[in-house]
Amino acid sequence: MKRVLITLALIACAIHALSLDETVEQRNRRMRWFREARFGMFIHWGLYAIPAGEWNGKPVGGAGEWIMYSAKIPVSEYEPLAGQFNPVQFDAKTWVRIAKDAGMKYIVITSKHHDGFALFDAKNSNYDVMATPFRRDVLKELALECRRQGIRLCFYHSIMDWHHPDYLPRRPWDPRPDVPAHYERYIAYLKEQLTQLVREYGPLGILWFDGEWEETWTHAMGQDLYAFVRSLQPNIIVNNRVDKGRQGMQGMSAPEFAGDYGTPEQEIPPEGLPGVDWESCMTMNDTWGYKKNDDRWKSSETLIRMLVDCASKGGNFLLNVGPTAEGLIPGPSLDRLADIGRWMKVNGESIYGATASRIGRPPWGRCTSKGRRLYLHVFEWPADGQLSVDGLRGSPTAAYLLADRRTKLNIRQSGAAWSIALPANAPDPIDSVIVLEMKEPQQP
Q1: Same domain as 331, residue 301
Q2: Residue 432 dihedral angles phi and psi, to the nearest 5°
Q3: pLDDT in tens, 361-407
Q4: pLDDT at position 205
Q5: % helix, strand, coil for the chain, step of 5
Q6: Strands (E), 360-431
Q7: Which of 25, 119, 277, 354 has its CA 20 to 30 A from that of 182?
C-alpha cells in the first residue's frame, strides 16, 4: 500500500498557521485572476468513460459520470474498470492548447469524482491511475503543460466517495456489512489527498468541491476543510460546495457558510448574483462524463451567447468537456471550442476582466463594462440600422466596432436614449460587439 499518514498534530498546526481574516483589498487581490479570466474549461474524466453510458449492454439513464450510482454497480464490479483504463491517445499538450485556443484561462479537472478513482499518483491509495495499464500521472502531465502554456490548473475533488470503505452513507445496493466504516478516518484520507494535490501539483488556482449535500457532511466540516485548504495555500480559491450553504443548483450561499464563490449549475442566474463572485458551469450536451449516445449538443451560437451572458452579469463561464476512454476530447466539443476561439480572438477584450453594466439586458443582446468602455453585444442586428441604447451615465465620446476599430460610428441623442448608426450587415451573425467610449465608468 502506498500510504502517507499525516498526524493530527501536523493538521492542527497547518490549520492554525493561517488567519482567514481578510481585508477587502486582500480578498480582491486573491480573487483578481478569477475575475479577469471569465472563461474556463471543466473536464470530467475517469473510469466512467469506459462504459460510456452503458452497463451490461444496456443504456443507463442519468449523467455518464454517475453510472456507478445509476446502474447500482457494487464496488466489486465497478473497481475492475481500472484494469481497462488505458487512454493511450491522451496528450496534455493538446488538451491545454485546445483550451487556450478557445480563449479559456483556466482548467478544472476531476482529480477524484464520486466513484473515488484518482487521476493522479495518490500516495494513500491504490485506486488510482498508476494502478491502471496506463500508469501515467495525468494531473502531473497537465500541471507541467499548464505552466508551459500559461493556463491556471484547478482541481475538482469530490467529498462524496462511493468506493472508500470508510465513507458514509453506503449505497443500499452495496452495503459491505463485513467492512466497518469510520467516517473520521475518511476525512483524514480526504485531507491527505488534498495536501498532496496542493503541495505536489500546485500552486493551484481553485479547489472545486462537490458532493457536500449528504447528511454525513456537516457545516462544521465544511468550515474546517476550507480553513485546512487555505492553510496549505493561502491564495487558493475554494468554491462554496466545500460547505452546506449551496441553495440547490443555483449555487448561492449565505454569508455564514464557507466558500469564495457561488456555483450555479446548468443555468445562468437571470440577474446574476450581484455583489457575489460566481461561476456558471455548463455541459455542451446533457452530461458531464463521456456518454457515447448523448448527441444533444448545444450550438456554438448558444455557447458563445452563454459566455457573454455570464460576463454581462459579472460571472464566469466554466464549460465542460468529457473525454473518451481513449483520451480524446469528442469531435463535437472540438468544433464548438474552435468556433468560440475564433469569436474570442476578435472579441475577447469584451470578456476578460469585464463585468456588468448599468444597461442590464437590452432587447438587442447584452452589455459588458470595463472602466469607461461599454461593450455592446448585439445578438439581434437592427433592421433599420439604428441601435438604441438606454440607461447611460453621461455622454458617449466615440463608438466603433471591436472588429474594426478604425471605422467610427455616428452617435446621436434621441430623447433619454442614444442611437448608434450601424452598417447594413452584422460583422458576426452570432454576436457583433460595438465599443462605446464613455466619459464616466458605467458599472451598476
Answers
A1: yes
A2: -95, 130
A3: 999 999 999 999 999 999 999 999 999 999 898 899 999 999 999 88
A4: 98
A5: 30, 20, 50
A6: 365-370, 373-378, 386-389, 396-401, 404-408, 411-414, 417-421
A7: 119
- Looking at the chain, how many residues does it have? 444
Domain count, the chain: 2
Question: What is the phi/psi pair of residue 264, to 5°?
Answer: -55, 135
Strands 417-421 and 386-389: antiparallel
- 96 forms bridges with which residues in the sheet? none
**389 and 297 share one domain:** no
For the whole prediction, is pTM greater than 0.90?
A: yes
The domain that contains 400 carries what CATH number?
2.60.40.1180
| Residues 414 and 309 reside in one and the same domain | no
Cα–Cα distance for residue pair 265/281, rounded to 1 Å: 5
Place of cell 487555505: 230
- Per-residue cell: 152: 491556471
Q: Is 129 exposed, middle or buried (0-12, 13-18, 19+ CB in 10 A)?
A: buried
| Amino acid sitting at position 254 | A
| Least confident segment among 8-17, 165-174, 316-325 | 8-17
Find how far residue 269's CA is from the centre of its chain: 15
Q: What angle do CA 180, 182, 183 make, to 5 degrees?
A: 135
The domain that holds 125 is classified in CATH as 3.20.20.80
Q: Nearest-5° angle of CA 157, CA 159, CA 164?
A: 100
Quote the domain boundaries for residue 178.
8-350
Residues 132 and 267 in one domain: yes
pLDDT at 247 over 70: yes
